Amino acid sequence: MYKSSCSCTSASSTVIGLTVRGASSTFRLPQITSPHGRFTFGLRQFLGQLGREQGGASGARSATLQGVQVTARAILRFMQALPLPAIAPPRVIGLDEWARIRGQRYGALVVDLERKKPIALLPDRSKPDRSKEFAAAITEALPHAQHVADRWHLAKNLTEHLDKVVSRRLPTPDQSWR
């Protein structure tokens, strides 16, 4: 029969109960797990990372294959307890409009072009083509930023400019050619 000579009772420590042939011993290990914890700190971190990579249900299946019985809900809880990864500020951003309801509701999308990830979805707008307002806001906030237009906006601006130039040079139908 096994009997432990150590019975630690510090209030700030964790208790792990061991029962061997009727004998009960408790050991407090605060650096390994929390009070009444079923998983060690390292295992919680591992399961949280597994949840980030695979999600709750598939992470739980993978953990079961590795011999750890855990639910998808626990995986998600460990994942939410992890600190958020540090995000470097974007160096190259894209700003474009999109129509929620064509002709009625518009929004703007801000994208990190290097990472190809959305940063923000700006609230609804009532007017389309707010490029001049966006350009003014960007120039005010970041005076040294370089503005680059995409192909669609280049073609649109070129068409509008050519239309103005041609309409000034061509006579109207009521004028005669001289």
Would you kindly provide a written description of the structure presented here, covering whatever features stand out?
The chain has helices at 41-54, 56-65, 72-81, 131-141, 151-169, and strands spanning 16-20, 23-27, 93-101, 105-112, 117-125. It is an alpha+beta fold and 178 residues long. It folds into two domains: 16-81, no CATH class; 93-169, no CATH class. Strands 3-4-5 form a three-stranded antiparallel beta sheet, with no helix packed on it. The radius of gyration is 32 Å and the shape is elongated.
pLDDT < 50 runs, ≥5 residues: 1-15
What is the terminal separation in angstroms?
A: 120 Å
Task: Estimate the helix proportion, in percent.
Answer: 25-40%
Let me know the largest β-sheet: 3 strands, antiparallel
Search tags:
178 residues, alpha+beta, 2 domains, three-stranded antiparallel β-sheet, 5 strands
Task: Give the helix/strand layout.
Layout: E1 16-20, E2 23-27, H1 41-54, H2 56-65, H3 72-81, E3 93-101, E4 105-112, E5 117-125, H4 131-141, H5 151-169
Antiparallel strand pairs: 1-2, 3-4, 4-5
Helix pairs in contact: 1-2, 1-3, 2-3
